[in-house]
Write a structure and sequence with these properties.
Blueprint: E1 4-13, E2 16-26, E3 31-35, H1 42-49, E4 57-62, E5 65-66, H2 74-80, E6 81-84, H3 96-107, H4 112-125, H5 141-153, E7 159-163, H6 171-186, E8 190-194, H7 198-204, E9 207-212, E10 215-220, H8 222-227, H9 232-241
């Protein structure tokens, strides 16, 4: 597995500078949690890692490869760096298992028969074996989000990005999705999460980054960042959310 390294990453939308000199190293097997107010740049940072947004300056390096080079084909990178969004983005006319199989069939040219054992094992692992043939409107929000995670895992990524994946869920459904993330962490999956779940970040993150106005204002292990934050802005944010 390769490390993901961001150097002085800059991104603006018009006059709005969304990322302003991001330096971040994500080591294999780490869980890195991004926290901060809405509009601080967390989602844009994830989208740049996955090449959904081109950066304006700086570099993003995966292993030894500069993946932010202009003109680079993003598809091989996205196979290595999977992403799950706040909205589930499941196709309503496809069953859960069809949603999961779609990308591996199209991108890796694998047949349904070749995929089915591995995909079935993922559904079983995440408690959805009896929901594989159900359509999205027959699933709860938590179940749909777990299907979205299974869909990303079916591509066998090295790194997983999660963008506020519990924020659209009812509180009682949040726990089942966080349990999936705990399971992936136990497997040693490299993960980067933008999250409002401070208790989860405090419990399981290796590194927590506090973003403010497009900058990583403070970062460190959760016991330090939550227990003894150094920056006044970090202290003010945590006093509101904890």
């Amino acid at each position: 597995m390769d490390r993901l390294h961001m150097e002085n990453v800059q991104k603006a939308f018009g006059a709005n500078r969304v990322l302003d000199g991001i330096d971040l190293v994500i080591e294999p097997g780490q869980m890195v949690c991004l926290i901060g107010a809405s509009g601080s740049g967390k989602s844009t940072l994830l989208r740049c890692m996955n090449l959904l947004e081109p950066i304006d300056d700086g570099r993003i390096v995966l292993g030894a490869q500069d993946i932010s080079e202009p003109g680079l084909d993003p598809q091989p990178v996205r196979q290595r760096i999977g992403m799950v969004f706040q909205s589930y983005n499941l196709f309503p006319h496809m069953s859960a298992i069809e949603n999961v199989m779609l990308a591996p069939r199209r991108i890796k040219s694998l047949s349904r028969d070749a995929l089915r054992p591995e995909v079935t094992a993922l559904f079983e692992r995440f408690g959805l074996a009896d929901r594989m043939e159900h359509y999205p409107d027959q699933l709860s929000g938590g179940q749909q989000q777990r299907v979205a995670i299974i869909r990303a895992l079916a591509m066998r990524p090295e790194i997983m990005l999660f963008d506020e994946i519990t924020s659209a869920l009812d509180p009682e459904l949040v726990a089942e999705v966080l349990d999936v993330l705990r399971s992936l962490r136990d497997d040693g999956m490299t993960m980067v999460l933008a999250t409002h779940e401070m208790g989860f970040a405090r419990e399981l993150a290796d590194v927590v980054c506090f973003l403010d106005q497009g900058r990583i204002l403070e970062m460190g292990p959760p016991e330090q960042l939550f227990g003894a934050p150094k920056e006044a802005r970090t202290k003010a944010f945590l006093s509101r959310v904890l």
